[in-house]
Amino acid sequence: MPVTMHDVLVEIDRDEPDYAAIAALGADALPHLSALVDADDGLRAAKAAYAVTMIGGAGSADILRTAAGHQDAQVRVAVAHGLRSPLAEAPAGVLEGLLDDADVGVRKIAVAAVGDLGRADLRDKVAAIAADDPHEFLRDAAAAQVRTLK
Prior knowledge:
Elements: H1 5-12, H2 19-25, H3 30-38, H4 42-55, H5 60-68, H6 73-82, H7 94-99, H8 104-117, H9 123-132, H10 136-148
Helix pairs in contact: 1-2, 2-4, 3-4, 3-5, 4-5, 4-6, 6-8, 8-10, 9-10
């Protein structure tokens, strides 16, 4: 049976969505999640973006790129947080872009994602945050990640 927007909204509109249930909807839910990411509702967009990281697959890459550039920082935070999972598939450049985000909260979660995933290829970028970020707490967090990345 095809997944409908109603099926997706039943899960997304909960105060605490069951992301495993959303992920179980599979790739058929991606067009609906994409529409939610594109809509004006930041909270729904954030929940949808996080759900996309749980589904993954080829259809998720463009949605995650869109969400990572969303005007609402809570959506970008949701992408960064979702990418912390080793099961999430980060499209090329998305995590790197989140490390450069204007919002300190987005950068903080992106730095944590780099560490959680052991992304040594991003060590230099995290080292730059450790050296130059205007927020001391983020410089400290980035420095701690740099020490763990090999």
